[in-house]
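Milestone M4 deliverable, item 7.
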Amino acid sequence: MQQTMYSDTQIQALTAAIDQNGYAVLPGWASSEQLAQLQAMVFAAVAAAGNSYVALTGSQAVAGTVLHEWGSSPVFLDLCQRIVAAATGRRSKDSRMQQVLRCLTGDRGRRESLIFHYDSYVLTTIMPVCVPEKGSPGDLLMLPSKRPLRSNYVLNVLDKLLVDNRFTQRWLARTYLKKPTRFTQIQMLPGNMYLFWGYRSLHTNLPADPSGVRATAVFHYDNLHGTSSLAGRIRRTLGMEKPDTKPAAMA
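Output delivered:
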């Protein structure tokens, strides 16, 4: 991870890459030593869960690790703020990021894959910690910028309802199998950081080899409807008052 603030030129280049290609890459975000430590933590967490799917949600779930440090890093936060500002024309007031370490393995891992969705946050960043050494690596799959930034929370809910149903999910999966070139498919390299418009882009991950582990550290920034009174009522109803209790994101 870069230790100094990113230049305006770097921010402009990253934003342009996301707009043009659907995503941008910051290579070598994690050092080899950091990556090795995170991989050891992932394998320990998976083993503790009975060699099954596990998600560590929120900064406290990864306390004492470099993931916790990144989640509160002024450099990382500034990077996300300026990219969002370049895309939206406003500087977000969010002072923290929502994060999750998502580990897929076995049959449960396959069931948690190929579920298309929109994020609630404008910017999503993903750093793969590890991918299966054989078989499918579980590539990131997306249809970039499929919707605008909604000014109304109800429209956001309608967008999600149109996607979160069996008919649409099956149609999207069949479309990918028949016409994969319609989608942007990203084979991610552990240690690199990938950035994309999580709110606007319909995305998922392909199933990974069930005998291996696919683990990704996901950081979300700028909850577009975080101050919506309707969104607040829904979060309270679902018992999601605290950001760290938000369900694990899928990516």
